[in-house]
Amino acid sequence: MEIIRDLNQLSNWRQAQAKAGRNVAFVPTMGNLHNGHLDLVKAAQSRADQPSVLVSIFVNPMQFNDINDLARYPRTESDDIAQLTRLNVDAVFLPKEADLTPKSDAFTIRIDPGELAAHWEGAARPGHFTGMATIVTKLFHLVQPQVAVFGEKDYQQLQIVRRMVRDLNMPIEIVGVPTARAEDGLALSSRNRFLEEDQRRTAPLLHATLVDIAHQLRLGKPLDSVLETARTRLTSAGFKLDYLALCHPDTLDPLRTAESGILLAAARLGAIRLLDNQPVVIE
Ligand code: PAF
User: Fold this and answer.
1) What does pLDDT average to over the chain?
2) Which of 95, 103, 91 is nearest to 142 (CA)?
3) What counts of helices (H) and strands (E) characterise the chain?
4) How confident is the model at residue 73 (pLDDT cuts 50, 70, 90)?
């Protein structure tokens, strides 16, 4: 596996892939890799055109609206590199912060994700999606992949990236990969390691509740009362809910009645914020 730390090295690697006639599949991450990330890598590796797979690891300061959250974000570079080596990834790109977010200039050009960022994570974390979309755009320009792979766990992020490549005519196929879960259903996340023992025991209730809501809606129960019951259940268990809503799967606008869509939820257990989602299919 080639370990790439500077932009010239990346450019040489990219040219070598083109010369060899190989497409590039790109997996952008912030490191602290878990099985969810490894699923993204495997999805990239299983593409029929057998592309070269490049994983980036960059904790993007632009997408953190809380400086403490940025400071305590886990950084586990040598373990990440070992995991990617074991998976036979072709290259890992570890950019220097100064190469992607230079402090010497005002850095005023940003990607505005528009209406898709108005609700949910966008409302809870102002500036988060602008920072995410800006850095993903920069990485796309540098890596020039044919395909880029993202997790469905960050559903709103995935929709914004899909929309961004469409609206800005970026010639990149975006692939979404289902959420990897622990055996008890908790969605894997780098932040789970900060859960205390009792919080870890409570955490799977978020997923279980979303699955139950989807089931109740399929049985024909009214949306308002099903959501209300779910909110009470989560709050009584100790969650502080940021949002829990049934949304249109593409626009992410909240739906007012029970219909097919996506349930989006964010809830805190102590200081730890958990995100999850669940499709609802009503025939
Ligand atoms: O999902 C993430 O880890 C990040 O938001 C991403 C896509 C790597 C951009 O920094």
Assistant:
1) 96
2) 95
3) 11, 9
4) very high
Q: Is 60 in the pocket of ligand 1 (CB under 6 A)?
A: yes
**Each residue of 113-131: pLDDT tens digit?**
999 999 999 999 999 999 9
Nearest-angstrom CA–CA distance, 31 and 16 = 25
37 labelled catalytic: yes
Q: How far apart are CA 167 and CA 34, in angstroms?
A: 31
Round to whole Å and give the CA distance between 59 and 167. Answer: 26
Contact call for residues 267 and 242 (beta carbons, < 8 A): yes
Q: Which amino acid is at 208?
A: A
CB-based contacts of 76, cutoff 8 Å, min separation 6:
31, 32, 33
29 lines ligand 1 (CB under 6 A): yes
- What are the structural domains of the chain? 2-177 (3.40.50.620), 190-276 (3.30.1300.10)
Q: Is the CB of 30 under 6 A from ligand 1?
A: yes
d(C-alpha 159, C-alpha 250), whole Å: 7
Sheet holding 24-29, edge to edge: 2-4, 91-93, 52-57, 24-29, 147-151, 173-177
Instruction: Give 79-123 pLDDT, tens digit per residue.
Output: 999 999 999 999 999 999 999 987 755 567 899 999 999 999 999
